[in-house]
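Long-time lurker. I teach an intro course on protein structure, and each term I like to show students one example going from raw sequence to a predicted 3D structure in token notation. This year I'd like something fresh instead of my usual example. Would anyone be willing to generate the tokens for the chain below so I can use it in lecture? Attribution to the forum is fine with me.
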Amino acid sequence: MTSSPRARARLRALCGAAVLLTAGAGVPAAAAGSAPAWSVSPSAGGGTRPAQDGRPYFYAEGVPGTVLQDKVAVTNPGGRPLTVRLRGADADNSGTGALSLRTRSTDTGAWIAFARREVKIPARTRAEVPFTVTVPADATPGDHPGAVVVSANGRDSGVSVHLRVSGPTLSALTVERIRVTGGRISYDLVNRGNTVLTPRLAVRADGVLGRALDRRPRTLPVELLPGRRVTLSEPWKNTPALDSVRVRLTVTAGGGAHDEAAATKRFVPWAAVAGTCAVILTAGGAAFWFVRRRRPAGGGNGTNNGKGENGAKSGNHGSQEIQGSWS
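-- Reply from a regular --
Happy to contribute to a lecture. Here you go:
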């Protein structure tokens, strides 16, 4: 994108400019029996970083108060005219880290203005629509990700806008809320800075019985936007059967971002413990029943059936002692 010293004058001129239409230029042939789909991309000749083979996204950088200019190309390879609608949108992270777009724009998406918000493109034609990004005077420095979104025939398609507002930048992130459940290590990543981060994660788990897990740093498939929190997880299939383990996560990213956090997890084979307790309780119950069965029915109440005078006297004497002890 290019900046303009006469922001308001150029913006008025841009909004009144005609959309450039190029018939048949670079339009793929339609496949037999199928309706070709329309497409959207950055204009090959626009912006501060034009490329002959096209650009994968828009890149813009400027100080607060700058008006940046570029063009978006929409190609209609079909045999009928196509009416498209254009809008800007703020980029966002979903809860699991995937990139998404906010329904209501308050940042970059709200700063994008098109020469025309609705364009009718003839058959087999490419239209290049100029647009501007007006950076507010009070915009905070750092990355402000957004997108140019084109809608037609019930389908949305967009191109990312990588906008950086000039000024001090900070790369910082934290790893929080580590949980180990169901063979997975879950955790939260929070971008505490003002730049987009691509984190790298290392995982280590040390138990009483030795090291249980050691994974070297690897790049996560996440673009963590400034101020966003995402919840991610790592599989851990071969967890210890019996141990107390300290799980430590180390996260790094470009610009010197770094953080570590740990959590303790105790692994207990509850099924085996429950089975052992059941066996113990069963054995205890059986022993108690056996002792009860072996105990004499009456302590000294004629158990000798009158056989032996000494036995009878001894039984009576014992009975008297018991009765005397309770009197």
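Some talking points for your students: The chain has four helices and 19 strands. The first strand starts at residue 2 and ends at 3.
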